[in-house]
Each structure stands twice: as C-alpha cells, then as structure tokens.
C-alpha cells in the first residue's frame, strides 16, 4: 500500500491515510483478541471512552499530573 491509498476507519468508515490512522489492539495473554484501525477523531473518542470506563466509580482519582497516553 502506498501513502496515497487509504482504507476506511473501522468505526466511522471514512477513508483515512496510513499516516493519520491509529491502531488499537486488545490482547490477552499475548493473543490478540481485537484490533481496530481508527481515524484521529474516532481514536480521540475511543480514548475518552476508555478513560471514562476505566475510572473507578467508588474511589476518587488522584491526579498526579502524568496523564500522557503513549501510542505506538
């Protein structure tokens, strides 16, 4: 695939170039369960959902100032 080609985002189905796409992979015990190729907007939405769903409901979250999410 060349840089000119684009495949659709797995969420919104809009075309997205490889340079802009982000891949989210879910692995359990080193086995990939799911993988999604997302455009920047859908990836940002995925991050927001992840942070919301993973935040504990009963305990307050202590902000340590280190809220970077590393994506490779």
Count, helices: 1
The unreliable regions are: none
Task: Say how many strands there are.
Answer: 4
Q: What's the main sheet like?
A: 2 strands, antiparallel
Based on CA atoms alone, the radius of gyration comes out at: 15 Å
Shape, please? globular
What is the element string, with H for helices and E for strands?
A: EEEEH
Could you give the order of strands across the largest sheet? 1-2
Mean pLDDT: 82
Which percent range describes the beta-strand content? 25-35%
Distance between the termini: 20 Å
Structural class: alpha+beta
Fraction of residues in helix: 10-25%
Structure characterization notes:
It contains 1 helix and 4 strands. The two termini are 20 Å apart. It has 72 residues and is of the alpha+beta class. A hairpin with a 2-residue loop joins β3 and β4. Strands 1-2 form a two-stranded antiparallel sheet. It has a domain of 49 residues.
Topology:
Blueprint: E1 6-8, E2 15-17, E3 22-28, E4 31-38, H1 40-54
Antiparallel strand pairs: 1-2, 3-4
From the structure above, extract its key features:
1 helix, globular, two-stranded antiparallel ribbon, 72 residues, alpha+beta
Brief rundown of the structure:
The protein has about 70 residues and is α+β, with helices and mostly antiparallel strands. It has one helix at about 40-55; strands spanning about 5-10, 15, 20-30, 30-40. The strands form 2 sheets. Strands 1-2 form a two-stranded antiparallel ribbon. A two-stranded antiparallel ribbon has the order 3-4.
